[in-house]
Structures are given as structure tokens and as C-alpha cells.
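Exercise 3.2. Students should predict the tertiary structure of the chain below and write it as C-alpha cells, then compare their answer with the key that follows.

Predict this chain's 3D structure.
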Amino acid sequence: MMSETTYLLLITVSSIVLLLVLVMRLKIHAFVALLLASTFVGLAAGMPFMELIESLQEGMGNILGFIAIVVGLGAILGKLLEVSGGAEILAQHIISAFGERRTDWALMLTGFIVSIPVFLDVGFIILVPIVYALAKRSGRSLLHFAMPLLAGMAVTHSFIPPTPGPVAVAEILNAPLGWMIGLGIVVGLPAAALAGPVFGRYISRKIKVGPPDFVEFNEEKVLSSRSDFLMILFIIILPLFLILVATTLDMVVGMGELSAENYWVSLFQFLGHPFAALTIATLVAAYFLGIRKGHNAKQLLEFSDKALTPAGLIILITGAGGMYKQILVDSGAGEALAQLFITYNVAPLFMAYILAVIIRIIQGSATVAMITSAGMMAPIIVELDISDPMKALICLAIAAGATILSHVNDSGFWLVKKYLGLTEKETLQSWTVMETIISVSAFVFILLVSLVFI
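Answer key:
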């Protein structure tokens, strides 16, 4: 006779198989697939119908109350950076500061910074003309410059809030964004260095490819002053700085060094909340990158509308991930999974990484892999006594796993192939390997950092 724990574990595994079949074979949208998988778990676990509905509603509402605001503000901030030419200005100044011999390192840093407020695909499309120009002028393979730029963007896209993926995982697992940002930078930058400049120099000697035939070169450059560069850099870093300050104050208060009732502590904790930090940064960007650049209020509204269109899809998928997590918790399936971890002494970091790797490789979407894995890990974290830094590291382990082995079922694979003029084989040898280097090296760094917090 099958025990209740075994039955609930079987339901959990079956729900993942169902999710993958719906997304891959039946081509059902991830939002609907997650909703159906959540419903399957609830019904199979014997939840009363109305209790199931209430859990779905609670799961969606709890996460969207946070995610919708953060993703929405982040999308508007990114759109303002895009339409103002801020990404190009950043790239020009950083490349100039690093010098011609270290252009690949400059591009990695540019990608890392730009992808904080701008979606990876948008940022790459904006900056790839600079890669074309550098390759033409130097005579080097396009990959010498493209790999570092993509590595910097890919790391930020998966590891650093307020990018939607890591924000969603942090909210599902209740990990403070300040710890996510700080530790994400610590493990992300060295991973980007290995996958970008280091691997880029190697693969560019193996694959010689110039700018695609469809590229038309324009010698006109975006002219900008140093003050423009500093303003754009300030706008991007401002919300991260405020969030990190608030997290630091939380630690100080927790140690008893300051009172939580202190006015200045309360003020900076408020300013460092993601809602306030992103609102401030968006308003500053609207003025300096919008109004000061000659855009009127109507144009700013149009920019916001365009920014929120892709953000809406991400918000819905994230909400569905919240439903999946809530059903796992309320049905008891999550508790059964947690008991399995405890019984066999499986380290949460390893399981978080492996789950994300499996789901990512099979169905392709990093966002779906991150949200589904986070939903499964959430009940386990509830059952275990895990500190805030370790929660952040588990989030980063999920992000690392969801980055691995991008191939033909990932839209990013085809984006890179198209804009770099590569064959499928060359894309696998360059982009796919680069993503895998980020995943594996970042996870190794995560394990090393976790030794500090054990």
C-alpha cells in the first residue's frame, strides 16, 4: 500500500511532467500550463473544490502584490534608458575608459550594467551595432566582442534584481532583495568574466565570423558628455544602492546596534524598499532621460505603455508560479517533498540547482524554470530553519541552474544566431557553451560563498 507521503511526491513529480508536456508538446502558454499543473496537484491531493480555488487566488494575489509593481516600474525605467540612447552612451564611455586592448572586459561590464533595468534581448539588439563596428575596425571575429557583452547581460538577467526572474524567485522564497543583489554581484561577476572575456577570446579563435551581410554601417556616433554618462550610471545604480542600504540597516537593527523605531532607520528602510527605490529611480529617469531630452508628457506615457506590454506576460507567468507554490503548500505535497529532503539529508542548494537545470534543458524558458523550481523549493524552505543569506544563495542556485545549456528550444538561442549571423552548430559552440560556463561556474562560487553562512 502506497503511503500518503509517497503519493504526494508522485503527484508533485507528475505535475512537472504535465507542465512540460503542456508547454513542449501541446504548445500551451506557460501561464495556462502552470495554472493547469497547479489545479492537477490540488485535485489529485484531494483538496475540496472551493479550497482549491481559494488557494489559487491566494497564491496569485500574494506574489502579484509585490511583483507587479517591481516589474512594472523596472520595465518603464528600462524603456527610458532605451529611448534616450543611454545604453549606447554607457557603452561608449566604458569602452573608452578601459582602452582598446581591454574592450572585451569593457563590453562585459557594459552588458552587466545595462541589463539591470533593460531586458536582455532588448539590450543586446540596442548594443549589437557597437559589436559590429568593433569587429569591422579591428578585424577580429565578432565573437571576441559579442561573448563578453552577452555574458554580462546573461548574468544580470538571471542573478540581479530588479530583473523579473530573480525578483520573482526572491519573492516566492521570501529572500531579501538586498542579499540577492549583493551576493548576485559576488558570484555573478567572476562567472561573467570566465564566460565572457576568457571564453570569448578562446572561441573567437575557433570561429571566425564577421558582421552579418544585412548590417549597414553608420559612422555617426551618439555624442554625449561625461555628465550624461554619470547621470545614466547614477540612475541605474540608485535603486540597487537604496535596497542595499535598507538591507544593511535591517542587519544592524537585528544585531541590536540601532533601534527599529529610530526615525532615520525607518526613513531609509522605506526608501530602500523596492517599491520606493524603483519609484524614485523611475521619476529621476523620467525627468533627466525624458523631459530634459525633449520628450513631452504624452511621449513618456507612450513609452510606459510600450514598456508594460512585455512586462504583463512576465507578471502573469510569475503569478501562475505563485499559484503553483501555494497549491504545493496547501495540499501537503510540499511538506512531503521537504520531509524527503530531511530524511535523505539533501542539501537545498544542490536540489534547487538540479531542479532548475532539468526544467531548463527540457522546456527551454529560463523564466519558467526559475519560477517552477522556486515553487517547489518554497515549502522546503518553510520547513527548514534557513537564514536570509542562505535563502538568497538558494535563489541564486536556481538562477544558475536555469541559465544552463540554452539550445534550440530557447528563444535566446535564435536571437543570438540571427544577430551574429551564426549557423546552428556555431551558436551551440559559442552561446550555448557560454551559458553553461555561467551556470556551472556561478554554482561553484555559490557553494564557496555558502561556506561563510553555514
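Discussion points: The mean pLDDT is 87. The chain has 19 helices and no strands.
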